[in-house]
Amino acid sequence: MSGSATQTVYEQLRASLLAGLYRPEEKLKISELGSAFSVSTGAIREALARLTAEGLVTATPQRGFRVAPVSVADLRDLTDMRVEIETKCLRHAIANGDLAWETTVVAAHHRLAATPIAAHDGSFSPAWMLAHADFHAALAQACGSAWMMRVRDLLFAHNERYLDLARKTDRGNRDAAREHRELMEAVLARDTERAVTLMTAHLDKTRDTIEAALLAATAMNEAR
Amino acid sequence: MSGSATQTVYEQLRASLLAGLYRPEEKLKISELGSAFSVSTGAIREALARLTAEGLVTATPQRGFRVAPVSVADLRDLTDMRVEIETKCLRHAIANGDLAWETTVVAAHHRLAATPIAAHDGSFSPAWMLAHADFHAALAQACGSAWMMRVRDLLFAHNERYLDLARKTDRGNRDAAREHRELMEAVLARDTERAVTLMTAHLDKTRDTIEAALLAATAMNEAR
DNA sequence: TGTGCAATTAAAATATATTTTTTGATGAAA
DNA sequence: TTTCATCAAAAAATATATTTTAATTGCACA
User: Fold this and answer.
1) How many cross-chain Cβ pairs, A to B, lie less than 8 Å apart?
2) Spatial distance between the Cα atoms of B126 and B174, rounded to a whole number of angstroms
3) What is the Cα–Cα distance from A159 to A13, expressed in whole angstroms?
4) A30 touches chain B (CB under 8 A)
5) pLDDT of residue B219
6) How far apart are CA A109 and CA B145, in angstroms?
7) Which end of chain B is more exposed for a tag (fewer CB within 10 A), N or C?
8) Measuring from the CA of residue B31 to each C1', which nucleotide is nearest?
9) Burial letters B53-89, b for 16+ CB under 10 A, else e
């Protein structure tokens, strides 16, 4: 364990949110969570406060916490920003990255490629989600800017939440593995423009896929 | 008052941090703050948790909270990122902004120009800091992207902390008022390239000033 | 005089108890 | 039936108490 109870709760809650274990706008009851994690309400409130600052949770005075909402508009806005920052990281990383960086990229890609994408229930497997996050983080890592990485990480986290909503719709009609491989190859070849183009396409494609799933889900809800 | 105690504490603490009322790396004792604000320790912990997620405060398990450190390296990194995002906001705002936006910019600038920059003790006056923050926010506002604004606000907040460190060194050898006026004029003329150039110069100049003050302060500390 | 160890103090972390606020239900009056 | 007011239950917010952990002090011993 990495230390305090509140820290553990924060990490687990965050992971659960990113994995889509709670629905958007769902109420997060303090005492319920408290008994679920078997810690005091104080620890829960503290964890929720941090998640609120991250934007993964919303807080309304006197009426508690909820899972942050999702929307097509937000997804589009988020993706635009992500394209911006991810390509910027990539440019810098390709310019600055040394052999050690190349090595971590290759390693991260190997792990990603070798990890089965789907869990038995049709959702993304946790192992793949982790490998995927690590691969993208590895690409950006060598950008040499802590602030860039920080903003990147924030945006990536928010995107993960959407990613999970696109479980079923996604795979099959898309070759994410190829996209990742080409991305790696462009990076190793230090072909900045190609890498940027591929990254942009990759993120845009992800957005389109999620958007379709999101609209389908909304339509289903409205019909009911 | 805008509601709960924890909310109030969060806001006040944040304002104090941005105003430089606490020194970087200073210990933030929970119970001390509790009695200072005359609220329970829980409320303090909650506020600190949020500030931690914002990066204004650092938390170390089992040994509490401290004011986040500052450094020349961080300031440079922060400014690079700020140039990036502020100019991006500006481009979009100039493209999208309507008359209502122009109006708020003019209003914000008028207020800024009419507010005395220095308090009697040589630091920036709180009123000026507020008017300054509002002016820059107004410029970016019309960018039309919530995520852009969110990242911008985060970066701006961190910069405010540095700004205060540059109190004495700054004014006199710099005509910030002119820079702001020119910025407004370029924006009203919808001269995107000029506005971007001015904004970049404005932020870089701010960094240089702060950096000089920071180095001077460090040298003084080392000499002691 | 310095070094290591125990005892003490201080502070953080956690749990529990209390107060306040909101929400949902029930029933009376229009 | 609909609307409004009142009451009861639930949950959030806050305060207090307890436990755990880290820091400090003082003392014995080299």
Assistant:
1) 76
2) 19
3) 16
4) no
5) 78
6) 33
7) C
8) C11
9) bbebbbbeeeeebbbbebeeeebebbbbbbbbbbbbb
How close B7 gets to chain A, by Cα (Å)?
Answer: 8
What's the residue count for chain A? 224
Question: Per residue in A50-107, pLDDT tens?
Answer: 999 999 999 999 999 999 999 999 999 999 999 999 999 999 999 999 999 999 999 9
Q: For A53-198, list the strands marked E by DSSP.
A: 57-59, 65-67
Answer positive or negative: Cα dihedral of B49, A14, A109, A190: negative
Q: Has residue A206 got a pLDDT over 50?
A: yes
Q: Find the distance separating the first CA and the last CA of chain B, reported in whole Å.
A: 44
Predicted pLDDT of residue A1: 44
Asked whether the beta carbons of residue B47 and residue A42 sit closer than 8 angstroms, the reply is no
Residues near B45 by beta carbon (within 8 Å), at least 6 away in sequence = A42, A46, B30
Find the mean pLDDT for residues B18-30. Answer: 96
- B38 phi-psi bin (left φ>0, alpha ψ -120 to 50, beta other): left
Confidence of residue A164 (pLDDT cuts 50, 70, 90): confident
SS3 category, B206: helix
Q: How far is A81 from chain B (nearest CA, A)?
A: 7
CA of B63 to C1' of C4 (A): 24
At residue A172, the pLDDT reads 53
Strand C closer than 7 A to residue A31 Cβ: no
pLDDT tens figures, A120-137 = 777 889 999 999 999 999
**Beta-ladder partners of A118:** A124
Q: Nearest-CA neighbor of B66 among B81, B55, B80, B74?
A: B55
